[in-house]
């Protein structure tokens, strides 16, 4: 009976403690998830801003060096006379400088795609003309519009509202949400490209929101896994500690039952602690002594 009561009390106390612990940990986990998700987004955004700024600086320097070395003229660099070639939809264009940029900046643009978060890294002029796309978007023309839309996107004019804002933007690390015509949603981060003090266009970095969301899901899973493991360990430890802490109470309960039944009245109850348990031990010891004295008197009579 005593053991059953002790177990019930231990279980009840453990459940209350773990319920409170669960609520506290759930709130803490939610806070950590929000904070870490925001930190992850901020880190990716800052990285994209830095990459767009680096790309803009390097492309601007490449064009200036080409002008300084007389490989192309400054007027050619700012050529806006787009010449349609082939029969493509959307149309494709040549300019007086696009062949040079194919040789000069393709490797640079592809380097940015070493970052798995990036799906494109390109230079566009102020009208959204994209002379040189990343290698993955310069695949051979197949004649299949669906395949060519995703496989060959170079030498097009991206004059949609987002594309034009990125091309004309003068802010370093300008962020927009861009819905590509391929169906992907990305963070478009752009920085202005200047050639000889005049804005030529912008350098655009496209960060995949699918990759970002996958990173956030991974972060959430890891946090939940860690917190769950901590909670399970806490439940087990709490149950063991509560039962260990209630051991003196169990002994007192057994002693109280013995006294009530008139058993083991000769056994002294020693005070083992100075807390409430110790005070309870002293009180039961006084009760035992009182009963023992009364019993001896009764026998004498």
Mean pLDDT score: 83
Q: How big a fraction of the residues is strand? A: 15-25%
Number of domains: 2
Terminal CA distance reads 35 Å
Structural class: alpha+beta
Oligomer: single chain
The CATH architecture term of the largest domain is 2-Layer Sandwich
**What's the CATH topology label of the largest domain?**
Beta-Lactamase
Q: How many individual β-strands?
A: 8
Radius of gyration: 38 Å
Query: Helical element count?
Result: 9
Helix content: 55-70%
Identify the notable features of this structure and list them briefly.
59% helix; 8 strands; 15% strand; two-stranded antiparallel sheet; Helicase, Ruva Protein, domain 3; Beta-Lactamase; four-stranded antiparallel beta sheet; rod-shaped; 301 residues
Word description of this protein:
This protein has 301 residues and is of the alpha+beta class. It folds into 2 domains: 47-209, 2-Layer Sandwich (Beta-Lactamase); 247-300, HAMP domain in histidine kinase (Helicase, Ruva Protein, domain 3), CATH 1.10.8.500. The protein is built from 9 helices and 8 strands. The chain has helices at 2-68, 74-77, 98-104, 106-112, 145-151, 161-168, 209-245, 247-261, 276-300, and strands at residues 83-85, 92-94, 118-125, 129-130, 156-157, 174-179, 185-195, 198-208. The strands form 3 sheets. Strands 3-8-7-6 form a 4-stranded antiparallel sheet, with helices on both faces. A hairpin with a 2-residue loop joins strand 7 (185-195) and strand 8. The longest helix is centred in the first third of the chain and has 67 residues, at 2-68. It is rod-shaped, with a radius of gyration of 38 Å. It starts with a helix and ends with a helix. The relative contact order is 0.13. The mean pLDDT is 83.
């Amino acid at each position: 009976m005593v053991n059953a009561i002790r177990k019930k009390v231990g279980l009840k106390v453990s459940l209350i403690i773990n319920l409170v612990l669960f609520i506290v940990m759930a709130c803490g986990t939610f806070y950590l998830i929000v904070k870490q998700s925001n930190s992850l987004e901020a880190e990716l955004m800052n990285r994209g801003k830095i990459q767009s700024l680096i790309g803009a600086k390097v492309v601007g320097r490449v064009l200036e060096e080409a002008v300084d070395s007389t490989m192309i003229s400054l007027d050619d660099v700012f050529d806006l006379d787009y010449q349609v070639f082939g029969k493509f939809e959307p149309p494709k264009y040549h300019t007086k400088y696009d062949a040079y940029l194919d040789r000069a900046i393709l490797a640079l643009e592809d380097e940015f795609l070493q970052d798995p978060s990036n799906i494109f890294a390109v230079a566009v002029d102020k009208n959204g003309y994209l002379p040189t796309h990343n290698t993955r978007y310069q695949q051979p023309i197949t004649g299949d519009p669906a395949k060519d839309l995703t496989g060959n996107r170079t030498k097009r004019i991206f004059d949609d509202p987002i594309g034009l804002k990125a091309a004309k933007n003068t802010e370093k690390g300008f962020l927009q949400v861009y819905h590509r015509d391929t169906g992907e949603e990305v963070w478009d981060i752009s920085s202005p490209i200047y050639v000889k003090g005049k804005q030529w266009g912008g350098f655009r970095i496209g960060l995949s929101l699918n990759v970002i969301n996958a990173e956030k899901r991974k972060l959430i899973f890891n946090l939940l896994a860690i917190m769950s493991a901590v909670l399970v360990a806490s439940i087990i430890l709490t149950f063991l500690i509560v039962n260990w802490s209630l051991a003196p109470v169990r002994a007192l309960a057994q002693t109280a039952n013995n006294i009530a039944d008139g058993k083991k009245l000769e056994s002294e109850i020693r005070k083992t602690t100075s807390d409430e348990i110790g005070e309870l031990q002293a009180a039961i010891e006084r009760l035992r002594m009182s009963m023992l004295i009364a019993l001896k008197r009764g026998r004498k009579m």
